[in-house]
Write a structure and sequence with these properties.
Elements (H helix, E strand, L loop, with lengths): L34 H9 L19 H9 L26 H9 L21 H11 L27 H9 L19 H15 L4 H20 L3 H21 L4 H24 L3 H21 L4 H20 L1
Helix pairs in contact: 1-6, 2-3, 2-4, 5-8, 7-8, 7-9, 8-9, 9-10, 9-11, 10-11
Amino acid sequence: MMLIKSSLIAVCVLLFPVSLSAASFSDLPPGHFAYSAVEFLQVNGIISGYPDGTFQPDREVNRAEATKIVVAPFLQSGSDISGFTSVYDDVPQDAWYLPYVEIARSQLHIIDGPPKTTMFNGARAVNKVEFLKILLLAQGENPTGAYSELQFPIAMDVTNPEEWYYPYMRSALAASMTMVSENGMLHPSKALSRAEVAVLLHRYLMYKQGRRTQALLSETESEIINTIQLMKEKDVNNASFAAARAVIASRGALTARPDEGIVKAAVKISEGFHILMNGYIAGIAGEDDTAIAKAQEAWASAEKAKTFSPELHTLAGQMQDMAAQMADSLRAK
């Protein structure tokens, strides 16, 4: 029984610019952080509200609901989704979500089934990384392969690249779907609200349209500034995380716009600051020769960035000044 559309980016065919008028939902004012995302998705028929005219943005989304959100846009118009039988012990035959779960498992292959697991846990709130996984896999992405050479800690709560969820968090950063909170966390296990699910989905779809490149460049710059400030504060761990996130954000921009000079320059600058950060760590450990070599490598990376775009000359020069100061101070020892 094959009901899904042949294209694994079926959602994206809905993405044409629309003009948004008054708020569609009484409990989602224009100032709400998810307003634009919800309005866009609602107009394009991807999500809906409740009969009373509310969206209930703060209500948690359970795993059954999250699965339907991801699967429903792939169904062919007028598809008969009856006749499915569940392989999970905790999914009743009369469950409204059974067809979506089985399509997700047997046709889209975005959730695990027996023998790996016999439980679906549909009533449990979906967390951030679970939703990212099913969304990205359903859209044909390859998070375990994309950016696989970037294997470094990226936040206080995402420190081990070997964890199963790491590739999905990395891909989410590269698509500007998520960013760190004020306390430097990515919160992969956070239970998601309806508003948060809408924002993640909307940002992904905008990235696939090439409309998140500026957001990624801004995030790259912000993380580089964070790196510099944290280095001054001698907060080595968080400085290293910020430098790593800058690299991932710039690489995401490069994937979207591989021929733009300013994007190429941003990649070289972010890579240079990450190298410089590693040199700083080496210097603290007393590995002076390694630290000097890293400083020289960072300086060269900044020089390369200057050849790509004059718009980032100032930031490249700042990195070269820092690299030169680091190398000079180590040689003076």
